Every structure is written in structure tokens, then in C-alpha cells.
């Protein structure tokens, strides 16, 4: 006898008698996907430019992505928001980033409807929709959609992946992480990597393994149940970490410089048809030093930086290939709708010289060629946190101008591949229709014949703002349905409408020409002047790479486009326009727990993210550990904050009490006790006394005197001429009893867990803090 089922919320269709033999059962209907429904796989790359994938003309090997393109579709007019979190919010909701309150990254949130950083629940995620239609839902890799003050173990968890419709999650919650010592979250809790770097660990390999295991776990139980996997690599965002053998594959390939890269990529793009044949290559960027003017040492370092980046991307492609091979092996590949996208253009955050330690920039410590040369052989390895010079950024966005964080096409035009053998007849074709990240969700829903829900979990849903491009799958000549799209990122504005684009660059067409740097504040009088004099106009239907500014020739059209930008801005919560970048972090915002003068940490707990942790820099403070030392002694970390690129650690080693302050991997200030820590219960203490003023402009935090105490007795002292001014290492939080990531002191093996008992570690910061807007700015931009 077949089971009788009924939809939950409707009347029970069975019979309820006084006893079971005269009753008839019926069961609440389980949610099931339609027979033959395809799997959905989104592959989101990070900071990968239009001209950096092989099938988009790059001299970089990406055979697996190229294979998807050869058997699927490439779109040459896909657009993003110019920054990571905003784009990701568009991908998952089908709404514009200001509608998602994600004007910038959440770390730069301000208290306005379009920028507070809390994605509204009325903007449902694709995961939430597909969960209601019988899909398994998995998120793997980068997230960066949760307000930073909500990423600690105190929650709340409703904006973590499992709170937004994903059944499983494995990855990192923030903007970036160390590829060898990542800050990993598994579902709703922190975990350590399964291996160490010396055992072959790399994050990309790990997240591919986990994506495969999530899918396999479900398929072995319910082989006909489809999945949605949101797979987001940490690559190719900095740090550009990759095993040496991958970088060495490109030895000498970039010795001819960034202009040569552009010329090669541009020529190949035309051969492939990925750009129109009449496209002109954009100008030489005024911020980029000509390769011919670089010294031999500069060329040596810069070329190696690009070799490492290229190896990083090829390594990423290889491991994506493992995921694709798994789908083929289990017979799911042909009926998986795959969409591959980069979240924005290539990143210029390495600056003109590149970096061996991005934390130098965030602490206002200048890069030097001499220091970078010393570390050239370590690029790509776990001891550095490297990013290439922005000449490669400019080249990576060929044929366009500029880069990530700006709304010229170099920041917003990205590679986009669609592959679905069972649903798309066309193979190896290029699509020219205008599409945007907000169009991905509507397209998936149309492909699945699913209507957007009226409500999710009882929350009425807002209208979708994207439009489906499913009609282009098998019709290369289909008309674009996406006619108008605004852009705004940190004051940089533009708008598209039916083949035209107007752009109002901020702070200017380049930093050199503007005479100022990224993130300059924009005031009302500045905005008025920009609107009156500085909008540019491009007919991108004919001028693909925005080379010919028609503002003077077409004033009426320009006025129309400017007015349209303001209409769209009003519609989608874009105002107020804010040109500030990191300074936004000074905005007061709600916290899970307010700042206080005393923080208590416990052994065996999860790392506390920097944004919710105690702040000891540039202020008097003390660290007191109440411990129990077993017979024979103990060693290990008492308290740590940061990683090998900057931070501090209070610890016991060789029987002695010690403290080390790693100043951005340039200098380590160390102090040790003059005797050993005896067995039994003891109070171990470190005190920092500020002895002078910080010099933030020179990248030096407050000088001070560090003292060690055992049971109140002074046992060690050090004078520190300077300390970290702004930001600890970019991937380590505060942890009692272990290193959560890369060890702060190189000779100590992670996690260097304390072998005794720590009852509490108390950090007192009742002393006055020396604040700096630049400090806050740099610390928060580290999270982009």
C-alpha cells in the first residue's frame, strides 16, 4: 500500500479512530526536488581579472576552466560591483549590493539602509530558496558576508552560512586567510587544519576535499537528490601562497614585463573573440612605472611575484579540476549547472612595489626593494604574506583600465563561464549580452522552473532586482534583458544603459593625476564639482575598453546618464555617497559586547576574532595568567594574538616565562625570565608601560617597557623602541593556550599548546588608548 502524504499546513487526510486498526495514517509530505533537477555549482574566484584566465587570453595555464569554456559559454559582458562582499551578496540574493546593505565590506559599514552590513532577511539567499525545493546546500571556502562583530563564538549565528540556508559549511568567515595556516570554520565552530604546511597542507586542496566529501556524503544516501554547492576559493586573493614547484613552472615567463603581458593577452583575446575585433587597448596607467624604467633588481622581484601569482592560479585550476573529475566519476557532471565568476577585477592592494607582507601596508611601514629581494625565494611560502606589484594588476585586467575598488571596467568586468551539457546545446560559444552578478540567481530559478518565493521562514520577500539570462544559453543573438545598471564603490560611480556608460572616478582617473590616494573623503561641495565637471561618457557598444570620452561631444546624453544614476541611487539605497575607505571603520556601531577594561580568556576555547578581541596596541596593559604547572614543568602558549606577520605571544618555553612582540615580521622584541617557572599554582604576568608617543606616520606604535612577573616578583624587563601601530597579523585572533595559526615566533611549532593548566588569562586595558583614524582605516582595509 502506498503511503498517503499531505502538504504541511493542510488538513490531515487520513482517518483517526479510537484505536489504530480502525485508523488510517497519512504523513507530512517531505520536500522533494523535481525529477531530473540539475545540481548547481557556483565557483567564485577572488581578485581574478578579466585577462588572467587562459580562455580569456591570459598566458596562464587554466586547463580545467578552459575546458568548461570550450564545452560551455563565455560571457564577455559580465559585471560585478568592484569589491568582494558586495558582489557575493549580489550573487546569492539577486539584489543589488546597496539593497543588501553591503555598500562596502561589512568592516566598513555605516549606519544607513544601504551600508549597515546586515543583509536583510527579506532578501533571501539562493540556498534558502533551493532548500525549500529539496536541494542539499553546501558552502565551501570564503564567506565574508557576516558583520565582523558577529563572527565570534558568541554569535549570533543567523548570518553565518548555516543561518542563511546552507546545511554545511567549511571555510573562512573573513575576507582572506593564510593559505597554509587558515582561520577555519566548520559549520558553526572553529577547527584547525587537518595537516601542517610541512605535511603538504594548502587551503585550496582542503576545501576541494571538503566539497567532494559533502557531495559524496549526501549522494551515497540519496543519489537522486540534487545539490547546490557554493564553492569560493581564497585564491587568487592575497596572500599569493603556492608550493614552489607551481611557481617555478613560470620561471622566466614574465621577464619581459607588464606591458608585454598586456600586448600578448590583448592579441590572444582578439584571436579568441572574447573582445570585439575593433577593441583598442586602454592607455598606459599613469600609476604604473614603465617596465623599461625598472631597475634590474626591481624586474627580478616583480617578475617572481607574477610567477608566484600565475602558479597560484594554475594550482587553483588544478584542484577545481579534481572537483569536476569527481562529478564526472559519479555521473553528475553533465547535469550540473556550473557558473564560474570572479568577484571583482584584479587587486592593486599590493601597491606599486608589491608586498612580501601585506601587514606592512596596514601598519604604514614602507616596503623596500632591499627587504623584498632578501625574501624573493620565500615568495609563495608560509613565511610571507605576499601580493604582486600593481603593474601586474593593470595587466591582469587587459584590455580595460584600472582595477578592483574602482568602477571603470577593470574593476567591474570579469570572466564568467557557464557550463551545463544537459541543459545547454551550445558549446564553446561567446555571449555578448550585458549581465550582472544579480542576474545569476534569477537565471538559476528560470533554469529550474522555480518561481521566486513570496516568503522565506515567514519573512515576506522583496522583489528580485536581477533578470534571467537563461534565454541566451542557446541563442547567441538574443537581446539583452538587463538594460540599466548603476555602480558605486567608495565614491567611485558609474552607470550603464543600453550600450552607454557614464563614469565619475573618485578620487580621479588615477592617483597620479588626482594628486591624492585612494579613500579620500568626499564632501558636498566636492560632489557638486564632480557632477558638474568630472563625469565621463563612453559608448561601450562601440568602445569596449572605454578609450574615447564623449562627454564634451554628447552633453545631452551625459546629462541623461547622470540623472539616471541618481534615479537608480534613490531606488536602491545608494545614498549617501561616501568616498572614505578605511576611515569608515571609526563609525560607532552595535557590538555583541561593548569595549571594556578587562577581558578574560580560557584555555581550550576558540580563537576570538580581532574585531571582537581585546585591543592592546598603543596603551598600557597587563596580561595575567593563573596557571598550574605539573611536576616536570610545562611549556606552551599562555596567550597569543596575530600570526607570523605581526603579533604578540606570552608563553613558557625551556622552563622560562617569555614574551615576544613580532613587529610586522621585521623585528621581534623578546624578554625572558631570569629563572624558571616552578611547579604548582602560580600567577604569571606581563605588563606594558608606554614610555613615549607613537609615530603613526612612520609606522611605529607606542614605545614602551615590558616587564615579566612570577607571583608578583619582577623576573625580566625589556625596552621596546616601537611596537605595532595598527594591525596584528591578518589571520590570527586572540587565543589562550595555543597559536590558532602561523606561529608568531618562528622557532615555536604551531599550535604550541600549553601542557599545564590555565585557569584564566586576564588582560587589563584600563589605560588610555592612543587612537588614530589611519590606524582604524588600515586595520579594516586589511579585511577586503
From TrEMBL:
Gene3D superfamilies noted in UniProt: 3.30.1120.10, Alkaline Phosphatase, subunit A
InterPro entries, per the entry: Alkaline_phosphatase_core_sf, Sulfatase, Sulfatase_CS, Sulfatase_N
GO molecular function (one): metal ion binding
Keywords in alphabetical order: Calcium, Hydrolase, Metal-binding
Keyword Glycoprotein annotated: no
Pfam family, one: Sulfatase
Residue stretches making up the Sulfatase N-terminal domain: 38-449
Family membership: Belongs to the sulfatase family.
The protein, known as: Arylsulfatase
Amino acid at each position: 500500500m502506498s503511503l498517503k502524504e499531505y502538504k504541511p499546513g493542510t488538513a490531515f487526510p487520513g482517518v483517526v479512530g479510537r484505536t489504530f486498526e480502525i485508523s488510517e495514517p497519512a504523513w507530512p509530505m517531505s520536500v522533494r526536488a523535481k525529477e531530473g533537477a540539475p545540481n548547481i555549482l557556483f565557483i567564485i574566484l577572488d581578485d581574478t581579472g578579466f585577462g588572467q584566465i587562459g580562455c580569456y587570453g591570459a598566458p596562464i595555464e587554466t586547463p580545467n576552466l578552459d575546458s568548461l569554456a570550450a564545452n560551455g559559454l563565455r560571457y564577455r559582458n559580465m559585471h560585478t560591483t568592484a569589491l568582494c562582499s558586495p558582489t557575493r551578496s549580489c550573487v546569492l540574493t539577486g539584489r543589488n549590493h546597496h539593497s543588501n546593505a553591503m555598500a562596502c565590506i561589512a568592516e566598513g559599514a555605516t549606519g544607513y539602509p544601504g551600508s549597515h552590513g546586515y543583509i536583510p532577511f527579506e532578501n533571501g539567499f539562493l540556498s534558502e530558496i533551493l532548500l525549500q525545493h529539496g536541494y542539499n546546500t553546501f558552502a565551501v571556502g570564503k564567506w565574508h558576508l557576516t558583520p565582523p562583530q558577529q563572527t565570534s563564538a558568541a554569535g549570533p549565528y543567523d548570518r553565518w552560512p548555516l543561518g542563511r540556508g546552507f546545511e554545511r559549511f567549511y571555510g573562512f568567515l573573513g575576507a582572506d586567510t593564510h593559505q597554509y595556516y587558515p582561520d577555519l570554520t566548520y559549520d558553526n565552530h572553529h577547527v584547525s587544519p587537518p595537516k601542517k604546511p610541512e605535511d603538504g597542507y594548502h587551503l585550496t586542496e582542503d576545501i576541494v576535499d571538503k566539497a567532494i566529501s559533502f557531495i559524496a556524503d549526501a549522494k551515497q544516501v540519496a543519489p537522486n537528490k540534487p545539490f547546490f554547492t557554493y564553492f569560493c576559493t581564497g585564491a587568487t586573493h592575497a596572500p599569493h601562497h603556492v608550493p614552489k614547484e607551481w611557481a617555478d613552472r613560470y620561471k622566466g615567463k614574465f621577464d619581459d614585463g607588464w606591458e608585454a603581458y598586456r600586448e600578448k593577452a590583448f592579441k590572444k583575446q582578439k584571436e579568441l573573440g572574447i573582445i570585439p575585433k575593433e577593441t583598442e587597448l586602454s592607455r598606459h596607467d599613469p600609476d604604473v612605472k614603465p617596465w623599461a624604467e625598472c631597475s634590474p633588481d626591481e624586474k627580478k622581484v616583480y617578475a617572481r611575484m607574477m610567477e608566484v601569482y600565475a602558479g597560484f592560479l594554475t594550482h587553483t585550476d588544478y584542484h577545481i579540476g579534481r572537483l569536476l573529475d569527481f562529478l564526472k566519476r559519479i555521473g553528475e557532471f553533465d547535469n550540473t549547472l556550473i557558473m564560474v565568476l570572479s568577484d571583482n577585477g584584479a587587486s592593486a592592494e599590493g601597491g606599486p612595489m608589491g608586498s612580501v607582507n601585506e601587514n606592512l601596508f596596514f601598519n604604514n611601514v614602507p616596503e623596500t626593494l632591499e627587504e623584498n629581494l632578501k625574501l624573493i625565494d620565500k615568495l609563495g611560502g608560509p613565511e610571507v604574506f605576499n601580493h604582486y606589484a600593481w603593474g601586474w594588476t593593470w595587466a591582469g585586467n587587459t584590455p580595460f583600465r584600472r582595477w578592483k575598488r574602482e568602477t571603470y571596467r577593470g574593476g567591474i568586468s570579469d570572466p564568467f563561464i557557464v557550463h551545463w551539457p544537459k541543459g545547454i546545446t551550445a558549446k564553446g560559444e561567446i555571449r555578448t549580452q550585458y549581465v550582472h552578478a544579480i542576474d545569476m540567481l534569477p537565471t538559476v530559478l528560470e533554469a529550474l522552473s522555480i518561481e521566486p518565493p513570496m516568503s522565506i521562514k515567514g519573512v515576506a520577500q522583496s522583489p528580485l532586482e536581477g533578470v534571467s539570462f537563461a534565454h541566451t544559453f542557446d541563442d547567441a543573438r538574443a537581446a539583452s534583458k538587463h538594460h540599466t545598471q548603476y555602480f558605486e564603490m567608495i565614491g567611485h560611480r558609474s552607470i550603464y544603459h543600453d550600450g552607454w556608460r557614464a563614469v565619475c572616478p573618485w578620487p580621479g582617473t588615477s592617483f597620479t593625476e588626482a594628486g591624492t590616494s585612494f579613500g579620500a573623503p568626499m564632501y558636498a561641495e566636492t560632489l557638486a564639482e564632480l557632477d558638474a565637471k568630472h563625469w565621463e561618457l563612453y559608448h561601450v557598444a562601440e568602445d569596449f575598453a572605454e578609450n574615447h570620452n564623449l562627454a564634451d561631444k554628447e552633453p545631452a546624453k551625459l546629462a541623461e546618464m547622470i540623472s539616471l544614476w541618481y534615479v537608480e541611487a534613490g531606488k536602491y539605497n545608494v545614498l549617501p555617497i561616501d568616498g572614505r575607505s578605511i576611515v569608515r571603520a571609526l563609525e560607532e556601531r552595535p557590538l555583541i559586547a561593548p569595549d571594556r577594561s578587562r577581558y578574560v580568556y580560557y584555555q581550550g576555547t576558540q580563537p576570538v576574532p580581532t574585531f571582537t578581541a581585546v585591543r592592546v596596541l598603543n596603551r598600557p596593559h597587563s596580561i595575567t595568567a593563573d596557571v598550574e604547572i605539573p611536576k616536570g614543568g610545562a611549556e606552551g602558549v599562555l596567550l597569543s594574538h596575530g600570526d607570523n606577520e605581526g603579533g604578540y605571544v606570552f608563553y613558557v618555553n625551556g622552563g622560562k616565562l617569555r614574551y615576544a612582540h613580532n613587529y610586522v615580521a621585521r623585528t621581534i622584541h623578546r624578554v625572558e625570565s631570569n629563572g624558571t617557572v616552578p611547579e604548582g599554582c602560580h600567577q604569571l604576568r606581563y605588563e606594558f608601560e608606554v614610555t613615549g608617543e607613537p609615530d603613526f606616520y612612520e609606522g611605529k606604535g607606542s614605545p614602551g617597557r615590558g616587564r615579566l612577573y612570577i607571583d608578583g616578583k619582577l623576573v625580566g624587563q625589556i625596552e621596546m623602541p616601537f611596537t605595532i601601530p595598527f594591525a596584528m597579523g591578518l589571520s590570527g585572533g586572540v587565543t589562550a593556550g595555543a597559536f590558532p595559526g602561523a606561529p608568531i615566533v618562528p622557532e615555536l611549532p604551531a599550535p604550541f599548546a600549553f601542557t599545564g593548566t590555565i585557569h584564566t588569562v586576564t588582560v587589563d586595558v584600563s589605560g588610555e588608548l592612543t587612537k588614530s583614524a589611519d590606524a582604524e582605516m588600515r586595520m579594516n582595509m586589511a579585511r577586503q
